[in-house]
Amino acid sequence: MSAVEQEIIEKVRRLDEETQKRVLAFIEELEIPPDTFARTYTARDLMNMPPEERSRIMTEAFNQAAEEDFEIFEAYSEEDFDESP
User: Fold this and answer.
1) Are 46 and 54 in contact (CB under 8 A)?
2) Structure confidence at residue 25 (pLDDT)
3) Range of 22's domain?
4) Closest to 37 in 3D by CA, of 20, 17, 61, 54
5) How far is Cα 9 from Cα 56, in angstroms, rounded to an integer?
6) Are 58 and 46 within 8 A, CB to CB?
7) Claim to verify: residue 23 and residue 45 sit in the same structural domain
């Protein structure tokens, strides 16, 4: 085991359980290939993939989108369709 690995283990051991879980989640994020979300897939790309890979990519995309902060708005209001002059 390298000196860096030993130092990481010692520092993680000193953390409380909740913080250790956060560290583990961070490490798991690092394991996701960097190009996973960088690539844009077309519907045709997705349909040509094996079902397992397609499902994995879609699940990751939905999970990432669930963590994003976004605002919901209506593109049209009733005033846009008011027919009175």
Assistant:
1) yes
2) 84
3) 1-31
4) 61
5) 31
6) yes
7) no
The token pair that represents 46 in the structure block: 């997705």
Tell me the average pLDDT across 8-25.
Answer: 91
Same domain assignment for residues 40 and 22: no
| 60 Cβ contact partners less than 8 Å away, ≥ 6 residues apart | 32, 36, 37
Predicted confidence (pLDDT) per residue in 54-67, tens digit: 998 888 888 888 87
Its pTM stands at 0.39
Looking at residue 15, its pLDDT comes to 93
pLDDT at 34 over 70: no
64 with 37: CB under 8 angstroms?
yes
- In whole angstroms, give the CA distance from residue 23 to residue 51: 31
Amino acid identity of 11?
K
| The token pair that represents 82 in the structure block | 């008011």
Is 57 within 8 Å of 36 (Cβ atoms)?
yes
Let me know whether 10 and 24 are in one domain. yes
